Structures are given as structure tokens and as C-alpha cells.
């Protein structure tokens, strides 16, 4: 067996199931699950219709590169969204479709890390656990960038020692962040691109929450637009990961793309050809329909906005709750240890949230997930409000 398998950590939801085991929550309260980041708003009609219309595509093997129309529609979306001239993006060399960003974030490390190099793979902490597993299975060593209240819940690149940058082969960044919803600003992205040039490492920017932002006038800035803005028009060392799962409420479609540095993507394309992860033709056509439509995304943002407005107002009456600029999570500070908070909340209020330490590791003597829980505002409005009121009731009971 691959010896690195033994270093993988249990997934957060396995730990959560154990935490809840043997507990019977009050039967008169309907269960509300806000632990999993699975979008529950309806999948847009245009996507569903395109899927049905192209079902005959199941009769063909799809190609790893996907059909030109898909890459073209992605190039157009990238260009419009991130203000990059369309002729700068070559759909044949800068874009690859992927079956959701999870598999791509994982396989990317397997492709770009030289197992003999003893490389470090940097990542935020707390994090999306795939980054860590990808690093470990690629034979690299994870190095965590604690995102704490003091760092504004984003990584502080300035605080990373030079010896770490020297060993860095790959860095995962996540903006908007899961679980914090905070954004890495353009100045920090510029700094990171400069560091990548200086120390020769690759930046994998997970931007899968980038379309779920609060302020309609200031969408989160992306890595490729930043590269372009500073004259890195070939997107050297920069690769972004985008998904339809959150943007278009289609986590079951398994559709996203990677885009950026053509030299890296050439190698990654070859890796994927062997790996055998081409997207089915009906899914490609459904994806084209989704990338070409913005109205459902605007509606989606509005639904999250309404839920954040209501939930943050309620929580703030008992405990300071920050409304993040993007994403669909509330990263709530807890007055007692996060696992106790989650367990007792389930026991007394039948509401399930995720303890912060299930998403983080202790690093440099700090565990930035401790005393936090992640609350995913994915349930319908009324359920989110009901859950917020129950959390309020629960927090009040702790202080009595
Ligand atoms: C930060 C982050 N990245 C990537 C993913 C993977 O999403 P998908 O594979 O559906 O594109 C998720 C899913 O929850 C996530 O939270």
C-alpha cells in the first residue's frame, strides 16, 4: 500500500458523526443541519434543460480537454468576470474542465509535486481538508498558515520564514475562505505572485466561493486578474480553481475548471489523460448553459444575503457574530470549546454545526479552529432563522 495513506486524517464529518453518537436530541424540535457546505437552493432551469437536451451525449466517450464550446464559454466568463481581455485567454491552453474542484485540487498536487524534493505545500489553517490530503499523498509536507482573528482570518504571507518559501513547491490559497468567508486582497495577491517568482513555486487559488459575495458592486478579486494587472499576462505560476457547485447550486453535476499558466496546464492535461477524468458530454453542455447565465447567480447571492442579514442580527444579540464579505458560512466564536458547543447545541436544540477544530490543526502552538464553529447557511431562510434563534437560546442558557 501507499505508505502515505496512513498519514491521512479522518474527514471532519466522520468526527462529527462520532461527536453526535449516542445523543438523542429533543424530538419536538425538527433537526436542522448546518454543518455541511452543500448548497440547497434550486439548480437553475437552464442547466437542467441543457443536461436533458444533451443526454444522447452519453453514447460517446468525452475527451479530457472537453469540447471547444465549453472552454470558449469559460474563457468568456473569466474575461467578463475578472476584466481580462478575451484575447489574452487561450481556451486551448489556459483552460481545462474538471469534475468539480475537489478532484482537481487533489490531483493537481499529485501532478506538480516532485516526491523526491521534500517540498512543503503551504495552505491556510483552518482549511478545506483536501489540500492537506493532497499534499500528504503527493509525498510533501503540509505547512499551515494560521488564519486567526489577529490576521483578519486570512493568511499572513509576511510572517512566513524565508526558509519555508525556499522549500515551498505549491501553495493553496482559498479566497473567499472556507470557513471564514474572508477575502485575500489584491495587494496580498501581488505579494504572493512576487514570492512565487522569487522562490519558484506554484499558486493554486481555490476560488470556488467567489461568486457568493455580499456587495454586488465589489466582487472578490481573483488571482488571474491580479497576475494580468501586474503584467504577468501568461499567468506564470498561477492556477485558479472554479466550480459550478456553489455558484450554480449544482454540487451533483461535478463541474468546474482550472485555468492559468499554460505550461503547467499542459503537464496537468497529460496527467488527467492518464487519470481518466473527462467530464461527460451532457455535463459539459449543462456547464456551458450555467457559465453563460448570470441571472440565477444574482438570485442566489440575494438569497444568501437575506439569510446572512437575518441570522447575523439574531446571533449578535447574544454573541459577536461577523458577517463575512463572501461565501455562505458564519465562522462563529464560541464561549466554550467548539466541540462542546457543537455537541451541546445538538443535544439541546437539535441543530448541527461543525466544530472549528475539525477543520484545523494545531500549528506553531495555536489551533485557529478552536473556540469557533462553522455554520453553513445552506438551509432555506426559515430554517436558518429558526436555527439562529435556537443558537441564541442555547448561548443564553450557557451564561445563566
Ligand atoms: C473550499 C472548497 N474548495 C473546493 C470545494 C469542492 O467543491 P466542488 O468539488 O463541488 O467543486 C469545496 C466544497 O465544499 C470547498 O469548500
Description:
With 400 residues, the chain is an alpha/beta fold. It contains 14 helices and twelve strands. It is globular and about 60 Å long. It starts with 11 loop residues before the first helix and ends with a helix. Bound molecules: pyridoxal-5'-phosphate (PLP). Pyridoxal-5'-phosphate (PLP) binds next to helix 4.
What is the topological layout?
Blueprint: H1 12-20, E1 32-33, H2 45-53, H3 68-82, E2 95-98, H4 101-112, E3 120-125, H5 130-137, E4 141-146, H6 162-167, E5 168-174, H7 186-199, E6 202-206, H8 223-229, E7 238-243, H9 244-247, E8 256-260, H10 262-275, H11 281-291, H12 295-316, E9 329-333, H13 338-349, E10 351-352, E11 354-355, E12 372-376, H14 381-399
Parallel strand pairs: 1-10, 3-4, 3-5, 5-6, 6-7
Antiparallel strand pairs: 2-8, 7-8, 9-12, 11-12
Helix pairs in contact: 2-11, 3-11, 4-5, 4-10, 12-14, 13-14
The coarse overall form would be globular
Strand content: 5-15%
Bound molecules: pyridoxal-5'-phosphate
Query: What is the makeup of the main sheet?
Result: 7 strands, mixed
Q: Strand arrangement, largest sheet?
A: 2-8-7-6-5-3-4
What fraction, in percent, of the residue positions are helical?
40-55%
Mean pLDDT: 97
Radius of gyration: 21 Å
Amino acid at each position: 500500500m501507499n505508505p502515505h495513506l496512513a498519514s491521512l486524517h479522518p474527514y471532519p464529518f466522520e468526527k462529527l458523526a462520532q461527536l453526535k453518537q449516542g445523543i438523542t436530541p429533543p424530538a419536538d424540535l425538527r433537526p436542522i443541519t448546518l454543518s455541511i457546505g452543500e448548497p440547497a437552493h434550486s439548480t437553475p432551469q437552464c442547466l437542467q434543460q441543457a443536461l436533458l437536451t444533451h443526454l444522447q451525449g452519453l453514447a460517446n466517450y468525452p475527451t479530457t480537454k472537453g469540447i471547444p464550446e465549453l472552454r470558449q464559454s469559460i474563457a468568456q466568463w473569466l474575461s467578463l468576470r475578472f476584466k481580462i481581455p478575451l484575447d489574452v485567454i487561450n481556451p486551448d491552453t489556459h483552460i481545462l474542465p474538471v469534475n468539480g474542484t475537489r478532484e482537481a485540487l487533489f490531483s493537481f498536487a499529485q501532478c506538480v509535486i516532485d516526491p523526491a524534493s521534500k517540498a512543503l505545500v503551504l495552505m491556510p489553517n483552518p482549511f478545506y481538508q483536501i489540500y492537506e490530503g493532497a499534499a500528504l499523498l503527493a509525498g510533501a509536507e503540509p505547512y499551515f498558515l494560521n488564519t486567526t482573528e489577529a490576521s483578519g482570518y486570512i493568511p499572513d504571507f509576511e510572517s512566513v520564514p524565508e526558509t519555508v518559501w525556499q522549500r515551498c513547491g505549491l501553495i493553496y490559497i482559498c479566497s473567499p475562505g472556507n470557513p471564514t468567508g474572508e477575502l485575500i486582497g489584491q495587494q496580498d495577491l501581488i505579494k504572493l505572485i512576487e514570492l512565487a517568482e522569487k522562490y519558484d513555486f506554484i499558486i493554486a487559488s481555490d476560488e470556488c466561493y467567489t461568486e457568493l459575495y455580499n456587495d454586488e458592486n465589489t466582487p472578490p478579486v481573483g488571482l488571474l486578474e491580479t497576475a494580468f494587472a501586474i503584467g504577468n499576462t501568461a499567468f506564470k505560476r498561477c492556477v485558479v480553481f472554479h466550480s459550478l457547485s456553489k455558484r450554480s447550486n449544482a454540487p451533483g453535476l461535478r463541474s468546474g475548471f482550472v485555468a492559468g499558466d499554460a505550461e503547467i496546464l499542459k503537464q496537468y492535461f497529460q496527467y488527467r489523460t492518464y487519470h481518466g477524468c473527462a467530464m461527460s458530454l451532457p455535463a459539459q453542455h449543462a456547464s456551458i448553459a450555467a457559465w453563460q447565465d448570470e441571472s440565477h447567480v444574482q438570485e442566489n447571492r440575494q438569497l444568501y444575503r437575506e439569510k446572512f442579514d437575518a441570522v447575523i442580527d439574531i446571533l449578535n444579540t447574544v454573541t459577536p457574530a461577523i458577517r463575512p464579505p463572501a461565501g455562505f458560512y458564519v465562522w462563529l466564536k464560541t464561549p466554550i470549546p467548539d466541540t462542546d458547543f457543537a455537541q451541546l447545541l445538538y443535544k439541546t436544540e437539535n441543530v448541527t454545526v461543525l466544530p472549528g477544530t475539525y477543520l484545523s490543526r494545531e500549528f506553531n502552538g495555536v489551533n485557529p479552529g478552536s473556540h469557533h464553529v462553522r455554520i453553513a447557511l445552506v438551509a432555506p431562510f426559515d430554517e436558518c432563522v429558526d436555527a439562529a434563534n435556537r443558537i441564541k437560546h442555547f448561548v443564553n442558557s450557557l451564561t445563566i
